[in-house]
Amino acid sequence: MTRDGRPSFQLTEQTPRSGPAFGFELISLNVRIVDRDHDTGSGCWMSPQVVMRRFPRSSPYWPVVTHPLLRRLLPGLAVSALGDGMALVAVTWLALQLAPSEQHGTWVAIAVAAYTLPSAAGALLFGRLLRGRHGAQLAGWDAILRAAALAAIPVAYAFGTLSIGLYVALLAVSSLLHSWGSAGRYTMIAELLPQRHHLPANAVLTTITELATIVGPPLAGILISWGGAATVIAIDAATFAVLAATYRFAMPRIGRADPIEAGASRAAGFSVIRRDRTRLGLLALTFGFFFCFGPVLVALPIHVTEDLHGSATMLSAYYTAFGIGAVIGGLAVGYLRRWSLWPTLIGIVLGFGTAMLPLGLAAPTVLALTSFAVAGLTWGPYMSISLALFQRTTTTALLPQVLAANGAVTVLSVPLGTMLGGPLVATLGARETLLLSATTTLALGLIAACLTALQRRLKAEHTDHRD
Description:
This protein is mainly α. It is built from 19 helices and three strands. It has helices spanning 48-58, 62-65, 70-98, 104-114, 118-125, 127-130, 135-158, 164-174, 178-192, 198-227, 229-250, 268-274, 277-307, 312-332, 341-360, 365-379, 382-393, 399-428, 430-466, and strands at 8-13, 29-34, 44-46. It has a three-stranded antiparallel β-sheet. The radius of gyration is 24 Å and the shape is globular. Mean pLDDT is 82; it is low at 1-45 and 255-263.
């Protein structure tokens, strides 16, 4: 049994007590319930049929999906995530309709940036106003702002007053509280659940998002062909309204156990991160990891179309393989609770860089697709584990500010890497840029591993000197 009273399972083969000298005898597969914290080799044996009957309750996700408050919230989060997944297509499509034909590329880039980047500014601008708020309240305010700002877009479009400038402005307003909303969701996890359930709960939220990015875009394509991009954005606004109502009526107000300093600045989250080596190193690793991935978003489409002479179907196959891998990796996170989180993150970075190498080394398409799926498999757990590390090292009073600061940095990392991808592809070529991204990611992981080993060695030497 585990510390929280749930059984863990160990598969073994039961050796037959007797058997013939020649031939084969069926060996039954049994399951022994063991206490992994105090395993003495004893335990009770259970048949696979019994294990399957007990499986849902033994899953690390069971306490999350059956929590009396979270189980009321998860459907609203899933609906909202699906709306956001559809918005990935609708935002760019409506920008194409509104922008002058000779400036399509520029305005599409601006619209996509406006839907994400202002959240970084919001993390700083609203630091003093939002400090001390509980997680559900922060997430609810983000959902309300998103619902209102996005709903204004189809209304203005219906009345013929939606210009490309107004469109971009409304997108920017809708994303101002996004870093705080994300911080609120994961702070709520820390407020509602004990630490041992943080990682599975984080995995549930991130997997919902990953699934939405797979299901949302094709669904958006169908809806756009039926009612237009403005209709899809209206649906997205409605999903955020549902989420806001869920936060308001399904979640009680939760007080904080720790007080907030009265003089805390709007950048208090960055100050808290800067004072702790683990948090500072985690933020640096996350920024570097996401930044190194940015050029892939530019190089991969060009590599597929120009180097491989592939079609849009081939490109979608790459993205689908990555998405499926990310979902599987995200679902596996709940079973890594007993792993040391920091070394696991470094291993993920190294594994991702290794998996990306075949794309930059002109490997056959089947191998490249498989390796990109493996890259998605390693990518999927990263955010859940990194957030769990923040949750374990920060009090719930400071957690929203710390996570908002983390979100402000990470939301900038991929776009900055994407911006660098254009010049790199023009200078080096698409395949070479993919190779550079892979090797840089590997170098980042090796540097993090070396610094971690050095820090532990110095700490051990310091302890020896004290003794």
